[in-house]
Structures are given as C-alpha cells and as structure tokens.
Amino acid sequence: GHEAEARAIIDGVRTASPRDPAPWVIAAEALEAHDELEAAHETFTEGARLLLTDVPEPPYSTHPLLYGRHRVRRMLGLAHDEWDALADTLHTMPVSLDELHDPKRVWSLGSDNPADLEAEISRLRAELGAYREALSRPFPVAMLHWPAEELTELLDAYPSLSAEYPSYEEHLATTEAALRELASSGTPNLGVVRGTVPSFEAFAASEGTSPADPALLPQYATTLAARGRAVAWPPQRGAACWCGSDRPYAGCHGTDTPTDR
Asked: What's the pTM value of the predicted model, to 2 decimals?
C-alpha cells in the first residue's frame, strides 16, 4: 500500500550502494514479488557486482544474493553465467538450484500424477533442509546500530528512548565499546545490525509491545541477526566501518580513539 515510498527506498538503496548484502536482497525481492523481474535481476546483479567482484570466497551473508539472482534468472529464462555456477557450488542440498527455481514447479502441485507429487515432496524436503541448516548456524551476538537519520526519527517519535541514546556520537562510541568488551571476554560471532524505524515499529506490533519500551531493543537486534541481517564485526581488513561513514574501519571506529562520523 506504499508503492511510491517503496520505490523511493529501493532507488535510495541502489544510489547508496551499501556494502551490506541485506538491503540489496530486500530491494530485489520486493521487485520480484511485484513481478518486476528485470528490475529485480538488475538489483541482484548490481549488489553482486559490488560485493563479490574480486572476492576469493563469498561470505555466508552474500549467499542469498546469489541464490535470489539465480532464481530470477531462471524465471527469466536466462542462460547460466559465472555467478549462477558459483551459486550452484555454494548450494549443498540434494536438489539442485535449477530444480528448486524451476518455474514449472508450481504446475506439479496440481498434477494427478503421483510421481510429480513425490518429486515435489522431495524438493520441499530439500528446501526445508536448507532452512534448517541456516537456522543451525550460530547467530552472531549483534549490537543494534541506528544510522543518524533513523535515530533522529526514532527519538522524535519515542522521546522516552533518549535515555538509551543521549546522542548519536555516544551511541556509536557505546556500540563500539560494547563490541570490544564482548570480544575481550571471548564471545564469538559478533555482529552489527542496522535498525530502521518502520521495521522496529513492525517488530513491536508483532510482539504486542510499544516501540517506546527499551526492553524491546535487544530483542529487535537479536531478531534482525537471526534473519541474517548482521554484518560481521570487526569488518574485514580494508572494509568500510560499520557506522556507515564510508571510511575504512581501521581509520574510523577501529582506532583507539574512533571518530564519530
């Protein structure tokens, strides 16, 4: 019901060229769900080109980008390319991606042929196995990061959360300090998730709780991490800082005296 706003957000994602695969996947899947397959393909490809060019081993967080691109290309009837082949290699389930993403699968659900139905059951079991494998991976312990604009909007809407976030600069410093403390205590799989006010409000509604409740913040962060939205901390050598400054982490919050922007 908010198509114009959604398109503006998608355009904003493509313009910002984030180094996190999640926005690319969300934007592309939204277009795919709207039957705009060409635009979805362009978005998946743009994200893959940005995040996977000259990368020796695709990080786990980028796998949905490759799988989604493979799916859309299959629906468009495009021939496999190198990234499709890479997606096939990363996919380890018994049923291949070509079968899982076959546009004709839907027809088997209405078939009277038991063999067709048995084949579909096998495919669904393979998909379930893939989901279970993903869920069995340890979720990172994630710290919630609000970009400056989102934090301003959050505090304008819910002033009671100002006690949690006295200022944007302090929010960044506190997040980095907490991550370092967790790392020093031996906590593995640390990550950072970026919050947005609309998704936080939707999460609060799903929990039957007010967004003004500070106790909801860590639950929101954990849920985002469980959905694969976490970016590993510390960033890889030479990678941009998690704070969104576009500077290398080593020259931003990775220093002993990190800058605020």
From this structure: 0.50
